[in-house]
Amino acid sequence: MALAMATTAGFCGSSHAVLAGSLQLSSSSSHLSMPKTNRIAFAEPGPRVRAQQQTSAETETGRRAMLGLLAAGMASGSYVQTVLAESISTLPTVPDKMRRKIIVAGIPGLLSEKSDSQGLIRAAANLRIDGLVLLPVDITKLPLINVEDHPNLPFEVQAFMDQILLADAILFSAPEYNYSVTPITKNAIDWLSLRPETLAGKTAAIISTGWDFGGGRMQYHLRQIGVRPDLHFINKPEVFVSTTVDAQNPPKFDANGDLIDDNVRAQLQQLLISLRDFTVPLKYCSNKNRDSGILP
Q: What PANTHER family does the database record attribute to this sequence (predicted)?
């Protein structure tokens, strides 16, 4: 049986083996193994998985089959139990070059400075979160996308793309319009998708506003839109801000659109902490993959 030694980032090591095509399936069992000649050595602390070589005849499987087997094992819990039972209880050491702050680009879904969307971005930028800094992005100068009339990207679009390219993650803040995203939000994503590297592989979080559901339907549509440009949205927490104002629901924003509700502020802080914690290991795995030569 495969002897798995994994840290908290051990799945990254598993990905190495699958991408390298070195995992094999024993014909006599459903256990994965790795021949000695194909083992990948990690000299520094961090993600790694070691598999014991099987002595019986082994049958190579396609990468899809291996990924499916791993997914099935994770779903059933058996893979996770095996890793936990045989793991070394040492946390990976993150290299110094990875210790810089996570840069989050805050993209509002409305143009007015007094809008709730802009107010939430300002509130996020004022929060003090270790290892994270949020930079508001000005999208007021973005033209409506029309690639046929603009074969060369306008200067404003190029500047916007350069800002997003430097960010590690994105915070979308927008209301729900007719059960969907605002045209401003969609326009920004459509421009960015013309330069795939600006969004591909980046993590993202959403905070929405709306009447009954706090913009929840917009969030689910935005997640669908993010599939094509390869955005990785965090799943939890989900922050829906109701804009209904009545005797039981005092206003959450002042006349200038600034956030005045401490409960929403606390939810926004937790959202950004979760975004940070989701982004760091993905960046770490990505950099190790490139350094090892397994990934381009």
A: CHROMATE REDUCTASE, NAD(P)H-DEPENDENT FMN REDUCTASE LOT6
